[in-house]
Design brief:
- The protein is an alpha/beta fold.
- The chain has a single domain, classed as Metallo-beta-lactamase, Chain A (4-Layer Sandwich).
- Helix content is 22%, strand content 28%.
- It contains 8 helices and 14 strands.
- Strands 6-5-4-3-2-1-14 form a 7-stranded mixed β-sheet. Strands 7-8-9-10-11-12-13 form a 7-stranded mixed β-sheet.
- Strand 2 and strand 3 form a beta hairpin.
- The longest helix has 11 residues.
Amino acid sequence: MKVTFLGTGTSQGIPVIGSSHPVCLSEDSRDKRLRVSAIIEWEKYRYIIDCGPDFRQQMLRENCQHIDGILFTHEHSDHVLGLDDIRPFFFRQGDIPIYGHKRVIIELEKRFDYIFESENKYPGAPSVKVHFVEKDKPFTIGGKVAIPIDVDHNNWQVFGYRLDDFVYLTDAKTISDSQIEKVKNAKVLVVNALRIEPHNSHFNLEEALAFIRKVAPERAYLTHISHLLGFHAEVEKTLPENVFLAYDGLKIEL
């Protein structure tokens, strides 16, 4: 299995528009972060986790020729606004499978009604094949079992996903013990770490590291990062030896 980090930034990305913060002015390419998303690949299959407003740019950068589906974590704009850019894939492949909580799909139907329209559909619009994801109900994609992991983004429900020994969590603030059990014994964990200071709806660095110690993966990668976490090169030096800052374009293998 191969994982590519398409984007590792928070909702505004880095650099933030109009910001003079030193991290936003950094010339280190690892400090330039598009909105958070990832590709998971195995055998002939390629699935995307979230497609935010930078989706087109990310697909072009990775020279992505096909996708087998999109797993949505939740419906916030930085995770879904690229849905229209599935059009080239649709024109070549047909309906694109999407997976998400029923609440998320309903919200997508509101924002992208022309995609979900069944009558008098605009001829240039893409179409999707909807699969609802439910708490504690694994499902199959590409011959692998995907396990949804229910996390709290303050008072907002978010799904993370586990496939084999890989776990991807984003926008997490709290996770119940029953859901933590689904994360344990993973070889690779991806988890959000927004900044140094506490935040009301995201793990900060201290909370992310505490969670990593609790579930004890072989390796962990931090994502959904804001400029307030600091410079990539400086923060990485402070991390435990099995914890790394992800960056846009990073590829890892399991």
